[in-house]
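Example record for the data management plan.
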Amino acid sequence: MEELLSHQIRMASFDWLKSLLPQFPDFVFPSKVLANDFFFKKERIVLTGQQGIWKPKQMQFPISIKSRSESIYDDEFISDNRIKYRYMGDNPNHWVNVGLRNCMNNKIPLIYMHEVSKGKYLVQWPVFVMFDDIKNLSFIVEAQTKSYILPENELMIGEPSEVERRYATRQMIQRLHQSTFRELVLIAYKEHCAICALRHRPLLDAAHIIGDGEILGRAIVTNGLSLCKIHHAAFDSNIIGITPDYHVHVREDILNEIDGPMLKFGIQQMHGNKLILPTNISSRPSKELLDIRYNEFKNAV
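Corresponding structural encoding:
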């Protein structure tokens, strides 16, 4: 088992992360905060570093593992609602890999950090290493519900079922995709609404052109639009359509409707405007996907 001091630091780190959720409600934390802002008994504990498998100097075993944003598009990354986490290097007996193996053997919870953009990590805790796949030089990682973590010496209340673990991990994977998609889209549009230019990040969404439940609805930048919440809702409900040449069309009955200033200035006056596009051409919305979506808009009208 983990020594008492390391365990106390680990549990305190979980409580600290939880305390930051009002500030970071989407579970996306700046790397500077993770590396510098956690203290245990007035001593700084670094929760992440250059290595993917990270062990603070004050602890016996690793406290966190992290992956890069591009890894979620790797078919080997996610399998059967589990995350495959690669060894450091190709030596199963490297001390870092041994440390993670010890976490598995002793059922020690970890913090999982997934880079959604440079300097920002979506953070999930607790996760557990469930299997050691030596043949493929990787560990299998699963999330578990936070109710199984106690603040004292006992780590687990019973054993969560496989169904519970898979469900928690599936939720984590969905959050990885959604958060990565959101960050990449907002960065591409320099954090403003493509229709009205609103720049308040809390009011911005990454809207899918083709829904993520459809065959073409991949969570990639070219299938996304940075929209404020009003225009996102209007786009999803076919009040607004966007042509393949990037022009905004407002539904005719909405154009003829008389209401308050929000409708007039927020919706009606957007009719005929051109989208504010990313400067990087490769990040601009796919004209093919917009064509499919605009045909849906016309049919809905």
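Summary line stored alongside the record: Residues 192-300 form one domain.
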